[in-house]
């Protein structure tokens, strides 16, 4: 935590630095530190706001609704004056979540990353009106007040270090809106959703508090037993894709639990609190593989994510902040099983949310699929339609209802215009009777409905589509080219058949 000691000069938070992008059309908070009681005035393109620093040496002003444009200079004046150069005003989005959000355009930045055509993308990345602020990966036990990071202008020299998803979204959005676009990237690999929640929220939620209690017990043990063995400490969280310890391995010393991105609150404290309440238009979220607690954890996940969205919206204070997220891609791993994807889809019940489906652009072995271009297009389409008012399709077919008609089941969808099977007959449809035993089925498109049958099931009651970790070749799309998300019509225990894959208990 910072203290008021040494705040002799006016100093803005790191987000307010050269090449920044500020949000247009809404009140824009600007904050920093100075001497207690010092008057601070912030001016940008003729718009000014003043305040007096509090006893803690902190100040914040709000610039009234700014119009898109620039570049401008922003001055922050007190006993000294700070000039922030090359500031643009446009559209700002927060990118958060796991390593697939961190995933960079170039593999030179991260060996496990790199887009399919990274050389071509980098060579063409001459977009001076696109900027990205990448916050340094930071985990903390207490909320922090600032984060290390800098704004970088998009160019062939810098784009390789950009988040690929953030870059593609910003590039396509800027092309469409013709205004500057900024991405504030606050993401961390293998992080859980609860790591991005504030302590008061977790502590006050009976369903989430046990996670915090276990974390605090582990922190206490670590501090009381320097150099102690992990096996002697309270148990840490177990993810769905955790690797079992090797037989005969030496007992490991306990690591600082605060530096474990699976623990609640640690990434909120280190990476979200410092950027609150930077004015943003919305959030792009890419997380899901890291869920702790096995079957119980998957069942808790929808509540965790709903809590996160509601809490972030309250903390940003911008109403129902758009929250657009990525459903897990196909992958031959328990972390990407259909029950997790179904849990992710439940977030759609909240207003101003949308889900980009990636079931068709995964990789059987890579948790970091390189085919990010379609994902950028899908996220951009969501934003254009739901945030910027474009009359356009943004979603693939979404299952709505079913009817049993003799030995067949008829399925109805939303976003159903132009239902199509790409590259041949429909695949990955299964059907079951009352015995709950699913078999492969024949599925045919009839107008805006799909008819599912199997000679093995004379009295069907349920259908599932793409219900597998890696449903290779699943091919239901609509006329706009968007894929359908995996779905099921039943409410049977979806976790039981795949419970053996879970390493957590």
How would you sum up this structure, described in words?
This is 9-O-acetylesterase. Residues 279-368 form the Sialate O-acetylesterase domain. There is one protein chain. With 505 residues, this protein is an alpha+beta fold. Among the domains are: 90-196 and 266-386, Rossmann fold, CATH 3.40.50; 398-484, no CATH class. Helices cover 19% and strands 25% of the residues. It has nine helices and 24 strands. The protein has helices spanning 99-102, 118-123, 164-177, 199-203, 209-224, 266-272, 294-316, 338-345, 373-386; strands at 11-12, 21-23, 28-33, 39-44, 47-52, 58-63, 69-77, 81-97, 127-134, 151-154, 181-187, 282-286, 323-326, 353-356, 398-405, 408-414, 420-421, 429-432, 439-440, 442-446, 449-453, 462-465, 476-477, 487-488. The strands form five sheets. Strands 2, 4, 5, 7, 8, 9, 10, 11, 12, 13 and 14 form an eleven-stranded mixed sheet that branches. The chain has a four-stranded antiparallel sheet with strand order 15-16-21-20, with no helix packed on it. Strands 19-18-22-24 form a four-stranded antiparallel sheet, with no helix packed on it. It is globular. Residues 1-5 and 496-505 have low confidence and may be disordered.
Q: Could you list some keywords that capture this structure?
A:
disordered C terminus; alpha+beta; 24 strands; 505 residues; 11-stranded mixed sheet
Task: Write a short abstract of this structure.
It is built from nine helices and 24 strands.
Low-confidence stretches: 1-5, 496-505
Oligomeric state as shown: single chain
Any idea what the CATH superfamily of one domain is called?
SGNH hydrolase
Give me the number of helical elements.
9
Task: Report the radius of gyration as a whole number of Å.
Answer: 24 Å
CATH classification, class level of one domain: Alpha Beta
Q: What average pLDDT do the residues reach? A: 95
Spatial separation of the terminal alpha carbons: 36 Å
Secondary-structure class: alpha+beta
Number of strands: 24
What proportion of the residues form beta strands (DSSP E)? 25-35%
The percentage helix is: 10-25%
Examine the secondary-structure arrangement and name the CATH architecture of one domain: 3-Layer(aba) Sandwich
What is the CATH topology classification name of one domain? Rossmann fold
Mass-distribution shape = globular
Mind summarizing the main beta sheet? 11 strands, mixed
Pfam family, one: SASA
Organism: Edaphobacter dinghuensis
Keywords: Hydrolase
GO molecular function: sialate O-acetylesterase activity
């Amino acid at each position: 935590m910072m203290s008021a000691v040494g705040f002799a000069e006016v100093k803005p938070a790191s987000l307010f630095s050269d090449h920044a992008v500020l949000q247009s059309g809404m009140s824009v908070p600007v904050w920093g530190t100075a001497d207690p009681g010092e008057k601070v005035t912030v001016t940008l393109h003729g718009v000014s706001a003043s305040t007096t620093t509090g006893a803690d040496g902190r100040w914040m002003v709000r610039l009234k609704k700014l119009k898109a444009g620039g570049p401008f200079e922003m001055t922050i004046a007190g006993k000294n004056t700070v000039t922030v150069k090359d500031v643009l005003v446009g559209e700002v989005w927060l990118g958060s979540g796991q390593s697939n959000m961190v995933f960079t355009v170039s593999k030179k930045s991260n060996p496990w990353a790199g887009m399919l055509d990274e050389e071509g993308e980098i060579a063409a990345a001459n977009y001076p009106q696109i900027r990205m602020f990448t916050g340094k990966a930071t985990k903390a036990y207490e909320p922090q007040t600032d984060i290390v990071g800098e704004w970088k202008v998009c160019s062939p020299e810098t784009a390789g270090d950009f988040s690929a998803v953030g870059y593609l979204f910003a590039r396509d959005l800027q092309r469409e809106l013709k205004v500057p676009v900024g991405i504030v990237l606050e993401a961390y690999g293998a992080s859980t959703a609860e790591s991005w929640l504030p302590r008061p929220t977790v502590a006050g939620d009976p369903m989430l508090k046990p996670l915090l209690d276990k974390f605090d017990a582990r922190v206490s043990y670590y501090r009381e037993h320097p150099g102690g063995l992990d096996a002697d400490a309270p148990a840490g969280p177990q993810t769905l894709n955790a690797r079992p310890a090797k037989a005969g391995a030496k007992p490991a010393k306990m690591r600082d639990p605060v530096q474990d991105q699976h623990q609640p609150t640690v990434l909120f404290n280190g990476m979200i609190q410092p950027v609150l309440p930077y004015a943003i238009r919305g959030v792009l979220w890419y997380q899901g593989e890291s869920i702790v607690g096995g079957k119980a954890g998957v069942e808790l996940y929808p509540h965790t994510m709903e809590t996160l969205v509601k809490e972030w919206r309250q903390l940003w204070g911008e109403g129902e902040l758009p929250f657009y997220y990525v459903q897990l891609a196909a992958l031959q791993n328990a972390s990407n099983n259909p029950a997790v994807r179904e849990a992710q889809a439940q977030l759609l019940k909240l207003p101003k949310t949308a889900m980009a489906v990636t079931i068709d652009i995964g990789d059987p072995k890579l948790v970091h699929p390189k085919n990010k271009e379609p994902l950028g297009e899908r996220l951009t389409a969501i934003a254009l339609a739901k945030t910027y008012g474009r009359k356009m399709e943004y979603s693939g077919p979404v299952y709505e209802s079913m009817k049993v008609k003799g030995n067949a089941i008829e399925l109805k969808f939303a976003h159903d215009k132009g239902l199509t099977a790409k590259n041949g007959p429909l695949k990955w449809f299964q059907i079951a009777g009352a015995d709950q035993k699913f078999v492969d089925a024949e599925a045919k498109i009839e107008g805006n409905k799909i008819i599912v049958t199997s000679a093995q099931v004379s009295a069907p009651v349920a259908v599932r589509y793409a219900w597998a970790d890696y449903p290779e070749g699943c091919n239901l799309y609509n006329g706009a080219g968007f894929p359908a998300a995996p779905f099921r019509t039943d409410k049977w225990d979806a976790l039981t058949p795949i419970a053996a894959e879970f390493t957590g208990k």
